[in-house]
Structure formats: C-alpha cells, structure tokens
C-alpha cells in the first residue's frame, strides 16, 4: 500500500463507517486519475485507488471524509460520503477489470469490512447510491465475484 496526499477531504475526529462505495475513475490512465483526485479545482477524492496491476494507493485516512459520492442516497441515509469509504478502480469505463485488480479489491474490502463491521448489504456501487446520475462501476464490474466471497448481496 502506497500513501498519497490530497487536499480534498474533511477532517473527522470520529465517525461511524457503514458503507463501502465502489467507483471507476473514468480516466485513460492511473496517473491522470490520481492527478484529478488531488486537484484543488476539481474537489474530488477517495480513500483508496487500485491500479490495474492491483496496487493499492491510499489518499485519505479512513476516519476522514473523502469526496467521492456527491449527492447520494440509500434507504434513509443521504450524503453517503459521511458514512462511507470510497474505492476507485483505474478503469476508463469501457474496459474489463483485470483479475489482479479485483483480487486486490476483494482483499481490501474484506479487511475494511471486518474492521468496521460493515454489512454486505452496504457494499455498493456509485450507481446504486446516485441512480440516474452515475453509472460506475459499470456493467463490466464483476459483482458476482464479490457475492461469491460473501462481500456483497449484488450479482
Ligand atoms: Zn463514482
């Protein structure tokens, strides 16, 4: 795991993490995606970004609020940034996810889920919490693999 810096987060002393939200970067390269997640102008971020090779980079501490979900809702919960960890996958939105990348994601989710006691009902995609506005992680995302690992109810 590599650590990177971004100005795009809210410091938080203590918060309850209930969700894991999965995204794709929608960018051509990992480098351009990271640059965007560090941009003071764009004002977006995530906690983790995973490369196609499966390398994990952390941009925001788990306890701090990253800016990845935007206007969002799930059940009675709104502004999911407050209660979630956001994971970006290096993917342009129109390509298959390499197995190495998904294996890293599964490992990371297992670890986060255990530490924060997150329900598998709350491991979701951006598209689930912002329908009509967002489509990531997209139709190529292998929900079935997460389902088979008992990490999500989606498939
Ligand atoms: Zn997203």
How do the strands and helices of this protein lay out in sequence?
Layout: E1 2-3, E2 9-10, E3 19-24, H1 30-37, E4 48-50, E5 56-58, E6 65-66, E7 73-74, E8 77-78, E9 84-89, H2 99-116, E10 123-125, H3 126-129, H4 143-148
Parallel strand pairs: 1-5, 3-9, 3-10, 4-9
Antiparallel strand pairs: 2-6, 4-5, 7-8
How many DSSP E strands? Answer: 10
- Integer average pLDDT: 97
Ligands bound, unique:
zinc ion
Ranges with pLDDT <50 over ≥5 residues? none
Helical segment count: 4
Q: Main β-sheet, in a few words?
A: 6 strands, mixed
What structural class do you assign from the helix and strand content?
Answer: alpha/beta
Q: In which range does the helix fraction lie? A: 10-25%
Placed side by side, the strands forming the largest sheet appear as 1-5-4-9-3-10
Q: In percent terms, what proportion of residues is strand?
A: 15-25%
Order of helices and strands: EEEHEEEEEEHEHH
- Please state the overall shape, judged from the principal axes of the Cα atoms: globular
Radius of gyration: 14 Å
Quaternary state of the chains: single chain
What distance lies between the first and last C-alpha atoms, to the nearest angstrom?
A: 28 Å
């Amino acid at each position: 795991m590599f650590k990177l810096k971004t100005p795009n987060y809210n410091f938080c002393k203590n918060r309850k993490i209930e969700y894991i939200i999965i995204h794709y970067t929608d960018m051509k390269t990992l480098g351009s995606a990271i640059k965007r997640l560090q941009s003071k102008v764009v004002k977006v971020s995530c906690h983790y970004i995973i490369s196609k090779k499966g390398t994990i980079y952390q941009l925001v501490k788990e306890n701090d609020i990253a800016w990845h979900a935007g206007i969002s809702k799930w059940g009675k919960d709104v502004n999911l940034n407050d209660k979630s960890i956001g994971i970006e996958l290096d993917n342009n939105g129109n390509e298959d996810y390499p197995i190495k990348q998904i294996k890293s994601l599964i490992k990371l989710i297992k670890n986060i889920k255990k530490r924060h006691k997150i329900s598998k009902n709350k491991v979701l995609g951006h598209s689930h919490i912002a329908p009509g506005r967002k489509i990531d992680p997209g139709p190529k995302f292998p929900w079935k693999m997460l389902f088979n690992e008992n990490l999500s109810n989606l498939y």
